[in-house]
Design goal:
Helix content: 40-55%
Strand order of the largest sheet: 1-2-4-3
Largest sheet: 4 strands, antiparallel
CATH topology of the largest domain: Isoleucyl-tRNA Synthetase, Domain 1
CATH superfamily of the largest domain: Isoleucyl-tRNA Synthetase, Domain 1
Strand content: 5-15%
Shape: globular
CATH architecture of the largest domain: Orthogonal Bundle
Distance between the termini: 34 Å
Number of helices: 20
Radius of gyration: 29 Å
CATH class of the largest domain: Mainly Alpha
Length: 596
Amino acid sequence: MASVPSLAATVHQRVSDALSAALPEAASADPLLRRSDRADFQANGMLALAKRLKGNPRELATKVVEHIPVAATSADPDSVIADIEVSGPGFLNITVADSAITATLAARAADERLGVPHAPDAGTTVIDYAQPNVAKEMHVGHLRSAVIGDAVVRILEFSGEKVVRRHHIGDWGTQFGMLIQYLIEHPHELDHKDQASSGEEAMSNLNRLYKAARSLFDADEEFKERSRRRVVDLQAGDEETIALWRKFVDESKLYFSSVFDKLDMEIRDPDVVGESGYNDMLAETCRLLEESGVAVRSEGALCVFFDDVKGPEGKPVPLIVQKSDGGFGYAATDLSAIRDRVQNLQADTLLYVVDARQSLHFKMVFETARRIGWLNEKTHALQLAFGTVLGKDGKPFKTREGETVRLVDLLDEAIDRAAAVVREKSEKLGLSEEEIAERGAQVGIGAVKYADLSTSASRDYKFDLDQMVSLHGDTSVYLQYAYARIKSILRRAGEGQTPVAHPELPLTPAERAMGLHLDQFAEVVREVAKGYEPHKLAAYLYQLASLFTTFYDQCPVLTAEGGPSQAANRLFLCELTARTLHQGMDLLGIRTPERL
């Protein structure tokens, strides 16, 4: 189905046509149409136009109004604008016809995508997100990259973009020499009694082994030396060493999978391309940078310098691509990843969902890639930098003992809190324990995701579970409850009452407000996809749920005072609201239970 023009787009076109008719010399002028509290829309462009033409803006606005057709009645099916007035120095206050609102919504409802078009300029985006470290437990610091990245993937794919996911896990480095050597000397440490090992068991095994290896490494100089030699074997591709390294990676993936499953996120194995995936490219990356003159040798290390990056004493701080001992740093890996993503994956956009504290590193990496030509006008890279998760006290989130909070513990607590809220409400619904557990997971994980996504990514936010699982305020539970309430209305209507749009009926203020907001969905999705800003979608959905609450309080649906036609029209508004909430929440990666 062709995209459905929004009321804003239609009104914009009507005012533009009137401008051209009234003043041919202003044919290309922008009416500067905005949503307004005084009317449905306000056109502010007459002031700038009058200044350009050296005329009176109010007189110009009056001329334009004469060329805009206005409906004889609010229910006139052939007109969009019900009323228009010149206000102040030359603003146009525009009220759209009730019939136009309902008819536009009916067109949206007829489309399975709710009238959201595919982006005309869609390309290929490689998005780097959810980057845990092998042989290390995931903690609260891993939450935001995963949640924000997953939402952006969903939004971009829905908009028509080809998205290639990349999980750049930390699976290489000197620590693996210590771990592999310990495993060689204690060969059964990662054996499973049962092949169907859980993710928790995998992490327990890895934690136990890591602590034992670290303790021995710190206490035994001979073991420390053997571990260092094992690093050389790993980097040289020694068969036995690589096989044991692979065992650590596989064990960690088992654990990662269990955490991402709990987060209700899909992480596909082919998308997991860690630091090791670029090993074969590192030497060539360094050679190309040095031969091109982008990188230079300084005290034996291969470096890239920047005029605007200086240390505390004013000395230039370089990006070190290769260390003086020949080892490769993170920069070599990240630059090799850019080469791969541009040249092999044919990316137009490289998006990195990474902690804001790494912003300087990525600024230098991106600039280096631009200097050598791997990034250019056609292909660009940007970091979607995110802030820190804070505790209720506004400080970095820690346990009472001052340790970093395990991510799985945080998620389990959210699910337990949510299940308690669901159980409290379950008596009326007659939910079984199994259903309570399922809804508890959907509500708890949704609460964690929404708290993150409803905050601008660049800002820190406080992790407050009491607030997150509240039925009141800007929470996912409030949105989920609004959705479940609508589904309950539709179930009670049954087959006897069918949702049908009736453009000939006048709308109440609550119906108008909800209808106008529903019509903005496609524009919001487009803006969110363009700016990688899930928090704007969360804000839109919260406002929609709030408008539905007002509608529900003021407008009886099944017992509508206007009879069967009005009941059918209100059921139609309910159904479209539910579909919009469901689609919007799905783009954020949040479930919408039908009974809550």
